[in-house]
C-alpha cells in the first residue's frame, strides 16, 4: 500500500507540474537569433534610439544602463551611464549583470560588442534601415522583455501614422534633396540609410542615394553638380547650425535661389526610433513648401 501511495503521489506531482516555458527566440537586424529562457529584466541600451525603442515597447522600467544622450523620454535621463555609443565602458556594463544588451550595428564599436558576446551575454543588434523596421524593432524588443502587448499597440499606432503620411505624400511631385549631416567633413546619407527612406516617404529623391557608404563624405563640387532643389540639415542640436547658411555663397544652386534651406531637429530625424515620424512630418512639410516655390 505504501508503495502504491508513493507512486500515486509521484504521478499526481508529475501531472500537476506546470511545463517549463519555452525559450523566447527573436531575430535581430543582423540576422542572428537571440534566445532568452525568461523575459529580460535587466536591459542595457547601447544607443539613444534603442532607449527610445525600449520605452515605446513598454520595457523602459527594465533598462538598468544606457549610453550618453539617452535623454528621451524624461525618465531615461536617470538611467546610469555606461559610456557613449562610440565607446563603451565594458566593466560598467558587466557590473550591471544584464540579461539582455541591445546594440547598434552601425554605431557601436564591433570589437566591443563581440567582447560582450564572448562573455556569454545575450546581445540583440538594432539597425533600422526602413521606417517599417522601427515598428518591427518595437515588437521584437517587447517579446524579449515580456511586454509584447504594449509593444504591439505601439507598433500598430506607429504603422497607422506611417501609412497616413504615405497616403498623403506618395503621389506628390518629386523634390531632389541633399541631406547634410555635417559640414567638416561634408557628410550625407546614401539610399540604404533610414533618413533616405524618410526622404522617399515625403516624395523626395536623395541625390546621393547611389553612393556605397551609409554616411559618405562628399565635396561641394558634387553638390553643385547635383543641384538639389532642397538642402536639409540637422546638425548636432535643436538650433539652426551656424554653418548651414554658408550655402548662400552659391546662389546658382536651386535650393539657395528658391530659399529651400531647411533644418530638422536631429533628435527626430537622425535617431532611428519612434520619433522618426515626427521628423518625417517636419521634412514632408518642408518639401511641400519647396514644391510651392517652383
Structure description:
This protein has ten helices and twelve strands. It has two domains: 21-158, 3-Layer(aba) Sandwich (Rossmann fold); 172-292, 3-Layer(aba) Sandwich (Rossmann fold). The protein is elongated, with a radius of gyration of 24 Å. The mean pLDDT is 93. It has helices spanning 2-16, 48-56, 90-95, 110-118, 131-145, 148-169, 194-201, 220-226, 254-257, 276-292; strands at residues 24-27, 33-36, 43-45, 63-65, 83-84, 87-88, 100-104, 123-126, 175-180, 204-206, 230-233, 261-263. By secondary structure, it is of the alpha/beta class. Helix 6 packs parallel to helix 10. Helix content is 38%, strand content 15%. It has a four-stranded parallel β-sheet with strand order 4-3-7-8, with helices on both faces. The longest helix is centred in the middle third of the chain and has 22 residues, at 148-169.
Low-confidence stretches: none
Q: Which strands sit side by side, in order, in the main sheet?
A: 4-3-7-8
Q: Report Rg.
A: 24 Å
* String of helices and strands: HEEEHEEEHEHEHHEHEHEHEH
Task: Report the β-strand fraction as a percent range.
Answer: 5-15%
Q: What's the main sheet like?
A: 4 strands, parallel
CATH topology of the largest domain: Rossmann fold
**CATH-assigned homologous superfamily of the largest domain:** Nitrogenase molybdenum iron protein domain
Category by helix and strand content: alpha/beta
**Could you say how many structural domains there are in total?**
2
Number of helices: 10
Level-2 CATH architecture of the largest domain:
3-Layer(aba) Sandwich
- What is the share of helical residues? 25-40%
Q: How far is the first residue's CA from the last residue's CA?
A: 96 Å
- Overall mean pLDDT: 93
The level-1 CATH class of the largest domain: Alpha Beta
How many DSSP-defined strands? 12
Q: What's the overall geometry?
A: elongated
